[in-house]
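Protein: Substrate-binding domain-containing protein
Species: Flavobacterium aureirubrum
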Amino acid sequence: MNKFTKTIIGFLLLAMVFVFSCQKKNEVSKETVLQGKATLYVDESIFPIIEDEVAVFETQYDAKLHLVAKSENEIVNAMLRDTAKIAVLTRTLTNAELGTLKSKKILPKTTKFATDAIAFIKNKKDKDTVVNLIDIINFLKVGKPTVIKGLVFDNINSSTARYISELAGVEIAKQKNIFSFRTNEEVVKYVSENQGMIGVIGINWIFQPPLDLQEFVDRVNVMSVKGIDSEEYVLPTQDNLASGKYPLARHLYIINCQGYSGLGMGFASFLGGERGQRIILKSGLVPERFPSRKIMIRNNVIKEKK
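Structure follows.
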């Protein structure tokens, strides 16, 4: 290969790199806060409410958000690998996780937009519809069936599993009589068909089940929960979540690592805005800010003619 040929090949390689970089730059430039395309990673336990929010957002703006439902661990790992830029989680990032992102010069923006809850469900044929958190914790620590036959989780790497694990102070993956699937949907179906088991899911799957899941939801009961320092059993209703009575409430966050004014910023603003908060309110969850209500005052009352 002579010198001239090497020069031509080198020039072609540089041209290809230049064209590719321009193409990538143009793809990013097409995305703004209210238009373009982006991928949104969503904690599977809260997928229904985010699906609703995205549906309205896309009808209102020239935007397309591709939803990817994953477990909490999978999403966080994707963010640390810089493959997930926008995510909705049930917790904020830890100091260690933030440190990893900052070492890559990524500064996440976190927005809290709602409160949901972890719910315990049981087959409707079971007589008991209440559960004491102390019994759950003791069951996990001992690992043997007592008043509880078994716990069913969506995914051992999920936010619900992590929450209950931290509450009990044990790694639930190593305990006996713990069952896990892949999704909340599978947990609902399993509990609806098996007596004695307690399912652990995000309450949003009960408030807003997909149409094909409704028949299974109708076959389960949401259990009232007695907190560790409480004397009453409380259902995960919207009022109880808002008042702080329900012991397994948790906040929802959108975390944006895009680093530019893209759909991550636009969707976060939408979630926290009037329209997004109304969708939260109607879903049965608790919005971070309750939407305002306009009251019309009329000086004269017009009577309709009979």
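Remarks: The CA atoms of residues 139 and 153 lie 14 Å apart.
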